[in-house]
Amino acid sequence: MPYAFQIKWLDEVDSTNNEIYRQIDSLDNLSVLSAWDQFAGRGQRGNKWSALPGENLTFSILLRPGMDVVPEVQVLDQFRVSEISTLAVKDLLSAHGIDSKVKWPNDIYVGNKKICGMLIENSLRGKEVSSSIIGIGINVNQTVFDPSLVNPTSMKKLSGESFPTEDLLEEFCSLFGNRIPLLSEYATLKEEYLSDLYRKDEIHPYRNLRTGEIFRGRIIDVDGTGLLVVDTLDGRVDKFSFKEIGYII
Ligand code: BTN
């Protein structure tokens, strides 16, 4: 069943996640706010997300699990929201000939370069996720980036083509809708999420942010709660939350 997204474009806003949060009581399930100019975009770990006005996609979706045939999501299963969102971005890129991987937890990479980041903010009611603000930044037509960014890329840099961002957002919403049923089909969701996970089963260096130590390890799994499962090559397997491990790229 196609889901009915309500897309609204805003001329300028600090952050589309903030704007959804401010309007949350009046917005319908599956509302999408997208900014031409997001001037104070927020990233993970308190970082900024910068995107040149008009050249990229910076948008947030309000998802209310358990409403309008969106499956319920238990608090313990909230990582599933990240999983469907990353798969939908991969679907979009793939539809335009760009082969990407999910860099756990929810970045999208092409080779060793980042093309998309997400900031997902959930509200919980008892044991359930009552709403999820899924903020997504996709580098689309921007080709010159702030030198302080480590490894950015964009759809245009990779393909040489420019993309109309409004059409791309409509396409994304349709692909995201196709992934929503997977919220209640965990085996398939996990298989698909793991199938193209950046660095899975390969040996690479990481920083253990609990101890500061650099170690070589192999990502072998992501568990149901979203922890990264790493073989630390010393006869042990360790699980890390997002705050506990850094990739060395
Ligand atoms: C990251 O990689 O650090 C996450 C970046 C998330 C950026 C998106 S852009 C739309 C939404 N609004 C925000 O303020 N952040 C997210």
Please outline what is shown here:
This protein is of the alpha+beta class. The protein has helices spanning 16-23, 79-95, 155-159, 165-179, 186-195; strands spanning 6-13, 31-38, 41-42, 48-49, 57-63, 101-103, 107-110, 113-125, 128-138, 203-208, 214-222, 228-231, 237-240, 245-247.
Task: Give an account of the 3D structure.
This protein has a seven-stranded mixed β-sheet with strand order 1-2-5-9-8-7-6, with helices on both faces. The protein has a five-stranded antiparallel β-sheet with strand order 13-12-11-10-14, with no helix packed on it. Strands 3-4 form a two-stranded antiparallel sheet. Helix 2 (79-95) crosses helix 4 (165-179) and helix 2 packs across helix 5 (186-195). A hairpin with a 5-residue loop joins strand 11 (214-222) and strand 12 (228-231). The chain has helices spanning 16-23, 79-95, 155-159, 165-179, 186-195, and strands at residues 6-13, 31-38, 41-42, 48-49, 57-63, 101-103, 107-110, 113-125, 128-138, 203-208, 214-222, 228-231, 237-240, 245-247. The protein is α+β, with helices and mostly antiparallel strands and 249 residues long. The structure holds biotin. The site of biotin (BTN) has 20 residues, from helix 1, strand 3, strand 5, strand 8 and strand 9.
